[in-house]
Amino acid sequence: MKVSQVSQPGSRRFRLSLAVLTLTTTAFAIWLFIWSLGDISKNPATWLLVPLFALLVLIISFSFWTSTLGLWLTITQRRQSTSTSQASHSSLPRTAILMPVYNETPASVFANVQAMIESLATTPHAADFDLFVLSDTTNPDIWLEEERMWGRLCQRLTGPTNVFYRRRPKNTARKAGNIADFCERWGTQYDLMIVLDADSVMDGQTMVEMARRMQDDPALGILQVPPVPVNRLSFFARLQQFSARLYSPVHMEGFSSWASFDSNYWGHNAIIRVAPFIDHCGLPTLPGVAPLGGEILSHDFVEAALMARGGWKVALAHDLAGSYEECPTTLLDYAKRDQRWCQGNLQHMRLIISEGLRPISRLHLAMGVMSYLASPLWLLFTLLGLLAMAIDGIWLGSTQERISGLVVFAFTMFLLMAPKVWSLVALAFDRPRREQFGGWSKIIPSVLIETAASVLVAPIMMLFHTRFVISTLLGEKVQWNAQNRGDGDIDFLAACRVFGPHTLTGLVGSALILFFAPGLFLWLSPILLGLSLTIPFSRILGSVELGQWLAHRRLLLIPEESELTPILKLQQRALEQHEQYANAHDRSQLLGELLSDPGFQALHASILQQTAAGLPAPEAKVREWTQAILTQGPESLSVEDRRQLLLDREALRELHIQYRVRQLHPEQAATASPM
């Protein structure tokens, strides 16, 4: 099926206005910058500064005017967020809810699953949804715990929504391959699929509304609902949760106005029409070797571009609430995630010029690339500026040059900081939302704390991003392992090891500036201070105690903490139940339970029959495992041996019989020889 692309009313006008305003602002900033430099013909370093500044200020101006447009629309339209479905009681399209997991904590995963199923049960459309836990887990103990919790959950749930579990023997192509495997096996049975992350949770009413909007607009291919970060307790996590909750709505309003039906997909908390996804969104393999070649890692932007190329709408439902995720809790975990995203986004440089992509899709890809290239460019711009001063033999210049430099700096900072101010302006027109944040007496100090922390974090991430970009371009591959989703401080030795280069850079840079150009130290102090204090600051950011101290004083608090939404209440209750169950069952003993419990054995065998049949181990290996288990216990097997054994149905069946005999009749088993 091929559909025509239709833009929202006014989107072309918004795009034209945004382009004119961005280019005008950029041109004015360039003029200011050249004016501040004086005679640039005498200094070759300034020849590079001007084009660098032009590119960087273009990015800043675009973001500024997107947020400014969002402020204007927020004030004039006053659109209210909602998670309430307007669907009639007639059936919705068959929808699969997909939760891909990879070595995650099963208690958290199935708490989210349970909460969403219970939330759907409060709607009249629960029977229109099925939920799939799509496991790529490689740890055999976590694998067994997933199966155990899934079986237990299925016994407890009584609603009309089915919950299925599938584990792939090999996690080929990571999450994208996991979703593709679902589409190949079961995709034809469903019209729509809601794609989640392992830490995602969505209100049932929100999912119903998403399906209704897809039903009402047959040309809609992807509908993305912005997720709100919640549930984390550390100081760093609270900073992210507060900034996302306060600042994002205005920016999203502006982004949606010009992106229209050429919007983007973020890989989770979105609903997708299955048939066109299968037809158009098969990911190509990039020529060459990793990291820039091979499998596409950041698949979401590419899938959105391919869906749009196929003639389907990609939209942002920024008015919908009830969509949640979790964020990294320490600066180290945040950097690790960014390193994966950096490598994936840099691959997009080769896709921007792909044949047939829509111009806005190319813009989205370019923006993703520049979100990481901007850091090394800012660092290069700073170093070139110092070099230009050294070549001129001056560090402060004349009074006029100091004033003009201050004007450029002030204008640039205005473009950077204004979007935060715009969010406060929008809040002034929305009293109910303002009260949800605790009123101005809590909002203003929270914004000051968040801004100060952001200023210190920025140079740290600048160095991280610079290293990530350089290492990727030099061919260093990053491992896409399971994310650390728990709260916890960074220990001192780990902080010294990871952030030592940042600290050394800050201290050496401070010493050089103070010795050669002390007058510049104040200008560069945000960068130098952030880098010099990275080790203690990273530990402060990871502190749960500080995060809780602030929360008790209602600082950096988000509305969802002041009053839990229904889905978060269900999630919290379910998490307590699943964690209690997990704590009562030692994960390391699950292989023994599998061998001794006929019900668990049958459950595991039925799962294998669907996905991993025909993976028998060599007979000699099976005899070795049997001997070890019957004489030393299941814990004696290595992780790799346990993983191979769990894939062999026949070996498990025979071993189960012998293990049960040994348990029930130890006197007979003592005289029997293993198979």
TrEMBL record:
Q: A Pfam family in this protein? A: Glyco_trans_2_3
Keyword Amino-acid biosynthesis carried by entry: no
Its cellular-component GO annotations read: plasma membrane
Q: Which CDD domains match?
A: Glucan_BSP_MdoH
Recorded hits in InterPro entries, A to Z, give:
Glyco_trans_2-like, Glycosyltr_2/OpgH_subfam, Nucleotide-diphossugar_trans
Indicate whether Cell membrane appears among the record's keywords. Answer: yes
Gene Ontology molecular functions = hexosyltransferase activity
Location within or outside the cell: Cell inner membrane
**Where do the TM regions start and end?**
16-35, 47-73, 377-397, 403-422, 443-464, 507-531
Q: Pathway involvement?
A: Glycan metabolism; osmoregulated periplasmic glucan (OPG) biosynthesis
Which residue intervals define the domain Glycosyltransferase 2-like in the entry?
A: 194-417
Query: Which controlled-vocabulary keywords does the entry list?
Result: Cell inner membrane, Cell membrane, Glycosyltransferase, Membrane, Transferase, Transmembrane, Transmembrane helix
Q: How does it sit in the membrane?
A: Multi-pass membrane protein
Assigned protein family: Belongs to the glycosyltransferase 2 family. OpgH subfamily.
**Which PANTHER family does the record cross-reference, listed alphabetically?**
CELLULOSE SYNTHASE CATALYTIC SUBUNIT A [UDP-FORMING] (PTHR43867), GLUCANS BIOSYNTHESIS GLUCOSYLTRANSFERASE H (PTHR43867:SF5)
Q: What is this protein called?
A: Glucans biosynthesis glucosyltransferase H
Provide the species name. Planctopirus hydrillae
